[in-house]
């Protein structure tokens, strides 16, 4: 049996500077996409051959999905790579956005764009850790309750890593 090919991917983790404190920019995936329909996610996708780096891929994907001009994002660094059940190695690229332009969701990929403050994500009762077993494999799922729904899976793991990083 052949192992599935590992696909490198990158997501942009946009940290917004707001007067009341930093916030994260998130999207809700469109129902028309092939996978993870309607889920809350960061903008991102597969690293393409023309991408010079994972940072370039994350910036390109954010421009394609939410019309964020790459020059508006100041890359701060990359969080630890995450594996997905679907065969991706995802590199979370953290970037600061000082002035948020008018963002437009690409309707083929994104149904909604919204913000969640880091203060909210740190509020007691918002976070839940679940240790689970699926198909004989144990893993930890990090979940965050927001006004827009529950953030979980890969996005929850990335938020958990971000909140425990030197970036915030």
Q: Which fold name corresponds to the CATH topology of the domain at 7-119?
A: Nucleoside Triphosphate Pyrophosphohydrolase
Q: Globular, elongated, flat, extended or rod-shaped: what is the shape?
A: globular
Q: How far is it from the N-terminal to the C-terminal residue, by CA?
A: 43 Å
Give me the strand/helix succession.
Answer: EEEEHEEEEHEEEH
Mean pLDDT: 93
Largest sheet: 8 strands, mixed
CATH class of the domain at 7-119: Alpha Beta
Topology diagram in text:
Blueprint: E1 7-16, E2 23-29, E3 40-41, E4 44-46, H1 54-66, E5 73-78, E6 82-83, E7 88-97, E8 110-117, H2 118-121, E9 127-134, E10 137-146, E11 149-151, H3 153-163
Parallel strand pairs: 1-7
Antiparallel strand pairs: 1-2, 1-4, 2-3, 2-8, 5-7, 6-7, 9-10, 10-11
Any overview of this molecule?
The chain has helices spanning 54-66, 118-121, 153-163; strands spanning 7-16, 23-29, 40-41, 44-46, 73-78, 82-83, 88-97, 110-117, 127-134, 137-146, 149-151. The chain is globular, with a radius of gyration of 15 Å. Strands 1, 2, 3, 4, 5, 6, 7 and 8 form an 8-stranded mixed sheet that branches. It starts with 6 loop residues before the first strand and ends in a 5-residue tail after the last helix. By secondary structure, it is of the alpha+beta class. The protein contains 3 helices and 11 strands, in the order E-E-E-E-H-E-E-E-E-H-E-E-E-H. Helices cover 17% and strands 41% of the residues. It has a domain at 7-119: Nucleoside Triphosphate Pyrophosphohydrolase (Alpha-Beta Complex), CATH 3.90.79.10.
């Amino acid at each position: 049996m052949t192992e599935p090919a590992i696909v490198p991917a990158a997501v942009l983790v946009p940290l917004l500077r707001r007067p009341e404190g930093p916030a994260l920019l998130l999207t809700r995936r469109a129902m028309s996409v092939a996978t993870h329909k309607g889920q809350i996610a960061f903008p991102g996708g597969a690293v393409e051959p023309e991408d010079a780096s994972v940072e370039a891929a994350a910036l390109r994907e954010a421009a394609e999905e939410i019309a964020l001009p790459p020059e508006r994002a100041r890359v701060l660094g990359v969080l630890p790579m995450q594996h997905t059940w679907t065969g991706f190695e995802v590199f979370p690229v953290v970037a600061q956005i000082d002035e948020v332009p008018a963002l437009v969701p690409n309707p083929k990929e994104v149904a909604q764009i919204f913000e969640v403050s880091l203060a909210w994500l740190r509020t007691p009762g918002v976070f839940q850790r679940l240790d689970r077993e699926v198909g004989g494999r144990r893993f930890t799922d990090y979940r965050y309750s927001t006004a827009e729904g529950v953030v979980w899976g890969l996005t929850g793991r990335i938020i958990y890593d971000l909140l425990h990083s030197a970036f915030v």
